[in-house]
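May I ask for whichever protein you like with its backbone structure tokens?
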Amino acid sequence: MNRNGVSYTVYCSFLQIYNEKLFDLFQDRDSNKPLNIREDKYTGIFVEGQSEYVVSNANDCFILLKRGEANRITR
């Protein structure tokens, strides 16, 4: 994206916390493998293996969030 001469990239991700475990809602809903939180001294705290999608507008975000919402389940 480019706004007022400034270029930037926006990412969208969607996590579910269930029983103190993290699940990526953009991945296969049948996957019962939780993700791990990691820390890097240069980039800080992150979720290992988390899906991130580049979005260019609000509609892109809504489409992804609708997809993730369909993957929310009680595990």
Remarks:
- The first strand starts at residue 2 and ends at 3.
- The mean pLDDT is 87.
- The longest helix spans residues 58-71.
- The helical segments are 58-71.
